[in-house]
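Shall we go through a protein fold together, starting from nothing but its sequence? Please make up or recall a protein chain and show it to me in full. Go ahead whenever you are ready, and we will take it from there.
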Amino acid sequence: MKAEHQRLIQLVLLVLVVIVIGLLVWWSELRDAGLVDGREEIVLPTPNCNPRGLFCLSRDRGYSISLELDRDATYLSPFSVRVKLFGFSREQLRHVRVRFAMPDMYMGENQIVLVQAAPDGSEWQGEAVLPVCLTGRRDWVATVLVEGEERVIRSDFAFVIDTQ
C-alpha cells in the first residue's frame, strides 16, 4: 500500500512539473510574440526627428502617433508633452502614457499618464520633469504607449534635452 501511495505522489508531482513547464513555455511564446499582459503589442517605427518644439510623426498599419515636447524643455523643470493620434478606435484609447528613459542608463521610473485634450480622443497632453544625469548625458527616448482593451500600440521618439 505504501508503494502505491508513493507512486501516486510521484505521478502527481510529475504532472505538476509538466504543467508548470508548459505554462512557462506558453508565457515565453506570448512574450516573444509581442503580447503584453495578454494584449497584442504593435510597435510603430521610430521616426528620425526630434519632438522638441514640433510634432514628430510615427505611423504604420493605419495608426499614427505624433509627439511634441516643449522646445525649451530642460532638466528638473516641468515641460509640456502633447500627443496626437490618428486611426485609433474608442476601444483602443483606454490610456495614453509616455515613458522617459535614457538608453543604456537606469534613470529611475519616469512615466506620465496623459489626459484627453480633444473630445474625440485624438489629442492628449500632460507635463513631465526629467532628472539630471550625473554623467552629463542628455540623450533620451520618450515611448508613447496607447493602451486599449486588446492591444498596446507604441512608438519611441529619441531627443536631446537642454542642460539650462
Observations:
- The helical segments are 2-32.
- The chain has one helix and eleven strands.
- The CA atoms of residues 75 and 132 lie 6 Å apart.
- The chain has two domains: 2-33, 40-160.
